[in-house]
Amino acid sequence: MLNRLSQLLTPSLLVRHVTEVPVSLFTARGIRAVVTDLDNTLLPWHADEEATPEVLAWLAGLRDAGIGVCLASNTRRLPRLERIAKGWGIAHVPRTANKPGTAGLLHALTLLGARREESAMIGDQLFTDILGGNRLGMFTVLVNPLSEQEFVGTRYISRNLERLVLRGDRARPR
Ligand SMILES: [Mg+2]
To answer: What is the pTM of this model?
Structure first.
């Protein structure tokens, strides 16, 4: 039971930032769909809606490789989510994804027309993004959060639990 739980909370890959994951890593694994968190993964938390040129180039690289991308966010700011997805030319789950529940992630896979075993889930939170993705057997990538400013519950509860689970094994800052 504990063993299963620790497996569910272990990402397949730890990186500092999404742009450190080369497209070739996905293609080599037969991954043809990427479901990704938004806040603190692609954008600083609730910051403006402009991604950095590096993030936009990374998204373009996925698109050029024929890999579908879909946002799955637990945000309640759905108009913002839709604006961002449309602006970037990617799909989005048009409701609060409720990760680590799997319904929102399955919705994303339906939108992308991909099976779970040929899909990756990327996010900055173990207890929502990684747990949800692992429950479906997806390839999971944990990134360091882009900004320290977060919803207070996330900051003081989840992060402390994450420290216990990860024992400091976040990708190290340079
Ligand atoms: Mg996040």
So the answer is: 0.89
Q: Residue 52 CB: number of other CB atoms within 10 A?
A: 14
The domain defined by 2-166 folds into Rossmann fold (3.40.50)
**Number of other CB atoms surrounding residue 151 within 10 Å:** 14
CA distance 35 to 85: 12
Protein residues placing their CB within 5 Å of the ion ligand 1: 37, 39-40, 124
pLDDT digits (tens, 9 = 90+) for 1-38: 678 888 899 999 999 999 999 999 999 999 999 999 99
Ligand 1: distance of its center to the CA of 58 in Å? 18
Question: From the CA of 55, how far away is ligand 1's center (Å)?
Answer: 15
Contacts of 43 (CB under 8 A, 6+ apart): 49, 51, 55, 84, 146
37 vs 12: CA distance, rounded Å: 16
Rounded distance from Cα 163 to ligand 1 centre (Å): 16
The identity of residue 125, as a single letter, is Q
Residues 114 and 33 sit within 8 Å (Cβ to Cβ): yes
